[in-house]
Every structure is written in C-alpha cells, then in structure tokens.
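Key idea: predict the complex, not the pieces.
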Amino acid sequence: MIVLLGISGGIAAYKAPEIVRAFQRRTYQVACALTPDAARFVSPMVLRTLTGGQVLDDLFAAEETGIGHITFADRADVMVVAPATAQTIARLAHGFADEPVSLSFLAATCPRIIFPAMNSNMWQQAPVQQNVALLRERGHTVIDPDSGELACGWTGPGRLPDPERIVREVAALLAGSGRLSGRRVLITAGPTREFIDPVRFLSNPSTGKMGFALAEAARDAGAQVVLVHGPVTMSPPDGVEAVAVVSAEDMSAAVERRILEDEPPDVFIGAAAVADYTPADRSPSKLKKDQPLDAIPLQRTPDILATVSASGRVPVCIGFAAETNDVIDNAREKLSRKGLALVIANQVGTADAGFAHDHNEVHLVSKDSVVSLPRASKADLARTIISTIADLVDNVA
Ligand code: C5P
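Result:
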C-alpha cells in the first residue's frame, strides 16, 4: 500500500514526520509532496530520511525530470493531504497545479482524503466551507478538523487529528472500497509447541511471517480478520483480532469455536505450520536426564484445515504446502484430499526463502491452474495471494 502524503504550510506541518511513521508502522510505504510553505515548517531532509528519498518538494529541481510528480501520483494507492491549509484547499478545489501538492492531487486517480487544519475563524468562513463542499461533491473525503487548543491561541475547531487517527481514517476509507470489504477471514499462523514435559517441546522453525503478512493484506482489503497464531515473536498487526495459542490442540479448539459461530468466516487460510504429532503422554514433571528415554510415543494431532473444509461451513478454504520435493504434485494431491480452493506451495530447504525468511517463492495451485509467482517479499506475495482469494470469493458468491 503506497500513501502519497501531501503536506501544506500550516503550523501542523510539524507533525508530518509523525504521520509518516504512523503509516509506516502499519506497513504502508510513504512518499511526500510538500508545498513551498510546508518546506519552511518541516524539513524535507527529515522526510527524505524517513521515506528513503521519496520526497517531492521542488518541481524544478535538477533531479526532477519533469515526470516525477506524475510517477508519485500514479504509484499512490491513496493520497492524503495533511495538514490541508485554507490556501491548499482552495488550490485543490479549483484545479491549480502550480506546486507539488496540488499538481499531484490533479494527477492522481486514487482515492484522496483531506485533513484541513487552520484557525477556527478561517475554517468557518464561507470560501473555505464552499471549497470543502466542492471537494466532497467531487467524491473526495474531507475529514472535519478536531476541536481544541490551536497554535494561534484560539480554542475551537481547526486542529489536525493525531497521526494514529489519520491512519485509522485512511485505513477505513481504503477498507470500505477494498475487495474483501464485509468479509470474514480466519487465518492460522506460526508454529505449534507440543510439550513432552513442562520444559521441553516438539516444534518447527516457522516464524509466522507469511500468516501475519496475509492477515495485514486481508485487513487492508477490507476484511474482518481473526488471526489464530502459535508462539511467535512478532506483535499482531493493528486492526486484526489476534488469538494466541500454544499447541495444535489449542489451535484446533480456537478455530473450531470461530467456525461454529452464527456467522462463520467466508475464508479460512491455514498458514500455520501445525505439528503433525504430539507426545501421547505429557509428563507432568520434568524428565530427568538419567531417566532412561529411548523413544517418545507420539499420536496424530487434528488436521485443522481438513476439518474446517469438511465442515462445509467455510466456502473458501486455502492451505499451504511446504515441500522438499515434487512441490506441485504434492500440492495437487493436498488440494483434492483436503477439498481446498487453493494451495500455496513452496519448496523448503532452499537458501533465503521459506521458513523464517522475509522472502519466498510460491506457486498458487488450484484445480485448473498453477501460477508461479517470482521471488518476492512476503508482504508483496500476501497482497497477490489476497487478490487471488478475492477472485475465488467473488466466484462462490
Ligand atoms: O497435510 P499437510 O500438513 O502437509 O498440510 C499442510 C496444510 O495443512 C497447511 O495449510 C497447514 O496449515 C494445514 N494443517 C492443519 N492442521 C494440521 C496439519 C496441517 O491445519 N494438523
């Protein structure tokens, strides 16, 4: 998700770096456009550092080849103007294009969301209110400013909302127009731990990265997401309901509870690396080193994905297949054995992909096709996978 943040020259521009960071915490990429006055309130150098150089502050700079502003506008999934001064609102409403923010606004085709911030009297003046009405009539979103103490010493409407609220408003706008808007998605992620005694367990190297990335991508597409995850070090994404579990049995129980709810999920994605076996008996006390132990009797864990699919309560069930060989054949077999709409298959044991890595290379295997995606970050892959899942949901609807 790429956000183009247009910053205009009011005192609230000093909050721009915080706004950039708040979007980045939500894993959005951010580029900035500044009016010449904004650049007097907030340092373009600070914004360049935070965004990795993605700042447009001078249409005539040597490095600006004359199309940079179009590229910024083209790449953006949403343009956010914060703070929007009375002057900038007038420019946007009347189609000016004489500086980076209004120019980008005119060149953009993505949704645009405007956060006015100014003195209360200015905000209430007819020209400003008429310009705001004009922008709303054209389908742009304008969020009324907060009321409170203003930098000019006045108290009243005119404050820029805090960065977290700006991010929430933008996320809500995007989710409402997202492809999974109104859908429920249940995802399992991470490893499970199968305890032998109170201090030892059987597990695997899954970090949950792929499942967490899918949860974020589904949330960004507008879905209501529940993420049931085993022990991982990452914090759950904002805006996702996370349920932490330990063993395969716990995970199975947490999933079953969601499946049996009055409104079961539309989509189930089994991204967890669930242990297939668990010790048949868990010792209540720590096993001693000198106690003879030649073997640990094991028993099968419940197959969560197969159970969800067989319940018939979730129209689109998706599984993962991590294989060391015959990746596609194994994925096809899993697809039909577990009755799935899609299997995301990858080869494990290769360097720098799969378990615990930020990148992966996967094949999307369905009944009629195999789509091989080139190596990409798990966040990028998650977006592609979620868009494929949205197609499947549309087809069963
Ligand atoms: O059968 P196999 O373990 O190879 O299938 C892998 C897929 O099944 C993954 O999507 C995984 O999340 C899911 N699975 C599960 N419960 C298990 C084992 C695997 O949901 N006990």
